[in-house]
Amino acid sequence: MNYNYRYRLKPTESQRETLYYHRDTCRQLYNHALYRFNQIPEDEGTVEQRVRKIRDELPDLKDWWDALTDVYSKVLQPTVMRIAKNINALGKLKEQGYKVGELRWKSPREFRSFTYNQSGFELDKKSGQTVLSLSKLADIPIQLHRALPEDVHKSDSSCAAHQKSPISEDATVKEVTLKKEKTGEWFAIFGVEMDTEPPAKPPLADIDPDGMVGIDVGILKYAHDTDGTAVESLDLLEERDRLEREQRKLSRKEYESNNWEKQRQTVAECHKQIKRKRRDFLHKLSAYYAREYDLVAVEDLDVKGMLESPGNSRNTASAAWNTFTDLLEYKCKREGTHFVEVDPEDTTKECASCGVKTDKPLWVREHSCPACGFEADRDANAAWNILSRGLTDLGVGHSEGTSSESPCDSDGLRKSLSDFRTPVETALPTGTAVVPAKRVVEAGSPICSRARSARSHGQRDLRSRTTLSERSEAQSASDHSSGQSPREDVSASRVG
Q: Among 84, 236, 389, 486, which is disulfide-ready with 342 (CB 3.0 to 4.6 Å)?
C-alpha cells in the first residue's frame, strides 16, 4: 500500500526565494511540454508514449534553456509526466459524467508543487536541527511531528530523524513533493510504498453481529449508526462568520495591491482552519469505524447531483460526505475491514422491520410504520436498512420482509434483523445516544472505551458490550465522583 507523510517546512527567506524559483521553472517547463504535446499527432502513440517522447527531449532542451540546469533532473522529469496524469484524471471525470475540457497552461497561482522522484533528497541533521537536503536547492529545516520510515534517513544513528523513526524494513520512500499552500506555508509530502500487505479480511460467515455497522450520514447528525450512536455535525459557525468578515474586507481592497495580498492570505488562513478542523474530524470518525468493526456499510450518495439541486447545497458541500466515505474506504482496506456502499434510494422511507415504504417529509424525524407499528428514529431506521442492503450485496442476507410482528422485545431492545430481513443477528437498541462532535475531536472516538479497540480481526476480545447510553451514564457518574471533566477523560483506546 502507498502512504503519504506530510510535514511542515520552515525555509528561510533566501530558501523561500529559491523554492519560488524552482517552482516557477517547473511551471514554465510544464507549459512548454503541454505546447509540445499538442503538436504531436494522436496517431503517434498513446498519451503516455507521447509524453515520454517530450521527456526524452529534456537533455537537448537544456542546451538553450539555461534555467533548467539549475533544477535537479529528477524534478524535471516528473514535471513533464504530470501531463499524462492530468489527462488520465480528466478521462476518469468524463467517465463519471462530468463536463471536461482540455488542459490549459498553468499560471503561477495554479502551479504550487514540484516533486523529487526516487533520488535527490534525504533527511539529515545540521546545525543542531533536522533538515531536508534537496539536490540543487537547499537544506531546509523540517518539523517531524510523527515517525517516518527508516530508509529515507542517512545511516548516521545520531540523526534526530533516525532516532524518531520506527524500524520499517518493508517501507520504501519513492518521492518527495514540495507544495506551497495558499497561505504561503511550504510542506514536504513523502510518498511511501509499503511492501507488507494489509491484514486479511475475516470471512463474512465468521463475523459476529457486534462486528457489523451501518452508517447513515446527514446534516444535523453527521453519522447515525446501527450501534445506537448518533454523532453531531462539527460546529464551524464561528469559523464561517470570521471567514465572511475577512472576505468582505478583501472585497474592499484594491485588486493585487499589497494590502489586497495581505488580506488574501488572511482569507486563506480562514479557509485552512475550516478545512483542517473538518478533515481532523472526518479522519478520526472514519478511523473509529474502520478499527472497531469488521464490516461497514454506507450509502453511495450522488453528492454531485445533490450539489446541483436547488437549496441546501452549502450544507451539503460542508458535510463532505464523499471525503468521509473515501477516508473510510481506504482505512477499512488498511485495517482489513469489509467495506460496502449500497444504493441510497428509499433507505429512509423503507421500514427496517417489514420493508413497507412510507413517504415522510424532511421535517418528520421519526419513523412510524403503518403496517407493523415499528417506531424508531428516522436516521436509525435508515442505518438499519443500509446494513441490511450491505449484507445482501455481499451475499449474506436477503431483502424479503417476512414478519410484521413488533420489532422490540420486552426489554425495549430491537429484535434481531434475522427475524425480519436478514439471517444475521444484530440485536440493536432502539435508544439513541447523541454524541457531540467535540467528543470525537478530543477523544478520537465517539466512545471512550470499546472491547475491540485493540482487536485483531478474527482474534478480538468478545467481551459483552453495553449500550452507549449505559456507558455514558456510568462514565458521567465516574466523572462526577472523581471531579474530572469529560475533556480530561481520554482513554487508551484513542483513535487517530
A: 389
**Is residue 172 within a helix (H) or strand (E), and if so which, with residue range?**
strand 171-180
Q: What are phi and psi of 158, to 5 degrees?
A: -80, -10
**Residue 3 φ then ψ, to 5°:** -130, 150
Rounded distance, CA 146 to CA 137, Å?
24
Which of these ranges, 67-71, 100-104, 425-429, 452-456, has the smallest mean pLDDT?
A: 425-429
Q: Which three cell numbers stand for residue 414?
A: 430491537
| Number of Cβ within a 10 Å radius of residue 322 | 12
User: Quick check: 222 and 234 in contact, CB under 8 A?
Assistant: yes
Spatial CB neighbours of 23, under 8 Å, sequence gap ≥ 6: 111, 112, 113, 114, 178, 180
Task: Output the DSSP codes for 247-292.
Answer: HHHHHTSPTTSHHHHHHHHHHHHHHHHHHHHHHHHHHHHHHHHHHH
User: Hey, is 397 helix, strand or coil?
Assistant: coil
- 32: cell is 512548454
Cell 436516521, residue located: 379
- What contacts 24+ positions apart, CB below 8 Å, involve 99-107? 103/34, 105/31, 105/34, 105/35, 106/27, 106/30, 106/31
The helix/strand/coil state of 322 is helix
Burial class (CB in 10 A: 0-12, 13-18, 19+), 347: buried
